[in-house]
Design goal:
heterodimer, A: 159 residues, alpha+beta, 35% helix, globular, B: alpha+beta, 5-stranded antiparallel sheet, binds flavin-adenine dinucleotide, binds FE2/S2 (inorganic) cluster, 2Fe-2S-bd (chain A)
């Protein structure tokens, strides 16, 4: 077992892990943050996307040890108290989900995109979400949801 | 799935990493971005007893654009994509990176890891071949360099010895009168190349005065297509030349079929992509 410490959604965490522990396992099984999903064994689906030091990563393909000393944000860390993040609001307003399994990963990938590109085109949104698979929606409303959030965030900045 | 157990080391110096490789031999694997290694470990296709993480070795990260371009092996795809000077010096590399996996894969995966892994369907090997790549390797005997042409040996096999570490990749810049392109037929889910072709051309007074063409995804390793290069050299750079050079070019290649694409289909696609890559390289010629 190896000691690690990291900050998850603003809270410090210290614990012991086996080196083979994946970041997604640490989040779900040790920290009970089950909003981060596991949808595949092949690093392809993106249901597990979280932010590691502000950058989106697939938590199923990062060792917990590789996050030692880092800051992690999961879907649970996105809302400010009772106020939803504009992306969470956008997925709700634009029907960007059906079963919702892919949604946490979609939102975390989209949040990374909007940090770097506050006003993406539809093509840029689709390119940024290439690593997130959805079996339900057909993606159209997901793109709309991201566009909705981008607009909300931009007009919030102007006021 | 979860990998089988292993011990984890994160040395902060290259010589320490080499010492660990020597100590643990076959049992040990280097860890770069982990986006080829961890998926295979999760499927238990690889079960190393020791992982040696290269992240703490800071001299392995960075880009220097001079007469040639030098890239530290641990530089991620995303860091390369974000480097404006690099993208200006080598638009073909920037365009290739956009085609690799997805944003999260690019946030972790590294150029060095991709070359050392030598996946037969990886994109970067073909591009490094046509940009006349030189690889810098650190091992027990110190530093050595090797041409990319001699680096890719077989499926998942390179000229790296088990106790050596790839430290940097040096590439030619695409200069005036030169153009380069990489085009691939991507697998729709994984985005790996079912077939990918990279082409580099220099055109002087309307004639091809230098060229390199390489294929990936088709056989056991990325390789130069010297037969195509010979057809192009010293010929007028015209569209019909590119069509002629592509025709039959895959006949003598060793091509693998798998559940995604049969051998016959891949062979046909190799020719299509040779043609398209040559046309695209010619269209990207920089003003001289
Ligand atoms: C879903 C998915 C899609 C992908 N799609 C594509 C794609 O479309 N095109 C593409 O080209 N690639 C693709 N990849 C692969 C990706 O680019 C990998 O990140 C890359 O191939 C390996 O780089 P890495 O840094 O992750 O290496 P790792 O996985 O850490 O290492 C790979 C191997 O190389 C060895 N190694 C690593 N660094 C060194 C070094 N410096 N010296 C010596 N040995 C070393 C390791 O020991 C290991 O055996 C994809 C990956 C995933 C998960
Ligand atoms: S669980 Fe599918 S990519 Fe991580
Ligand atoms: S909403 Fe069901 S997988 Fe996306």
């Amino acid at each position: 077992m190896v000691r690690i410490s990291l900050t998850v959604n603003g809270r410090p965490y210290q614990g012991e892990v086996e080196p083979r522990t994946l970041l997604v396992t640490l989040l779900r099984d040790h920290l009970h943050l089950t909003g981060t999903h596991i949808g595949c064994d092949t690093s392809q689906c993106g249901a597990c996307v979280v932010h590691l030091d502000g950058i989106s990563v697939k938590a199923c393909t990062v060792l917990a040890l590789q996050a030692d000393g880092a800051t992690v944000t999961t879907i649970e860390g996105l809302a400010q108290e009772a106020t939803l993040h504009p992306l969470q609001e956008g997925f709700w307003a634009e029907h960007g989900l059906q079963c919702g399994f892919c949604t946490p990963g979609m939102i975390m990938s989209a949040a990374d995109l909007l940090q770097q590109n506050p006003d993406p085109s539809d093509e840029e949104i689709r390119h940024a979400l290439e690593g997130n698979l959805c079996r339900c929606t057909g993606y159209e409303n997901i793109v709309r949801a991201v566009r909705y959030a981008a607009q909300q965030m931009q007009s919030a900045q102007k006021t | 799935m979860i990998p089988s157990p292993f011990a984890f080391y994160a040395p902060s110096r290259l010589d320490e990493a080499v010492r660990l490789l020597q100590q643990y031999g076959d049992e040990a694997k280097l860890l770069a971005g982990g986006h080829s290694l961890l998926p295979t470990m999760k499927l238990r296709l690889a079960t190393p007893a020791v992982l040696i993480d290269l992240h703490k070795i800071s001299d392995l990260v960075g880009v220097t654009v001079g007469e040639r371009v030098t890239i530290g092996s641990m530089t991620t795809w995303s860091a390369l994509e974000a480097d404006a000077t690099l993208c200006e010096a080598l638009p073909v590399l920037a365009a290739t990176i956009r085609l690799i996996g997805d944003r999260q894969v690019r946030n972790r995966g590294t150029l060095g890891g991709a070359l050392a892994h030598a996946d037969p369907a990886a994109d970067a090997p073909a591009v490094v071949l046509v940009l006349n790549g030189t690889l810098t390797i650190y091992g027990p005997a110190g530093i050595r360099t090797i041409a990319a042409d001699d680096f890719f040996v077989d499926m998942l096999t390179t000229a790296l010895a088990p106790d050596e570490i790839l430290t940097a990749i040096t590439l030619d810049r695409v200069g005036p009168g030169e153009g380069a392109a990489y085009l691939k037929f991507a697998h729709p889910a994984s985005r790996y190349a079912l077939v990918g072709v990279a082409a580099f051309l220099r055109v002087e007074a309307g004639q091809v005065s230098a060229c390199r063409v390489a294929v990936t995804g088709a056989g056991v390793r990325a390789e130069r297509l010297t037969n195509v290069e010979a057809m192009l050299l010293h010929q007028p750079a015209q569209p019909d030349l590119f069509a002629r050079a592509a025709r039959g070019a895959a006949d003598t290649l060793e091509i693998l079929g798998d559940l995604h694409a049969s051998e016959t289909y891949r062979r046909a696609m190799v020719e299509v992509y040779i043609h398209r890559a040559l046309v695209a390289a010619a269209a990207s010629l920089r003003a001289s």
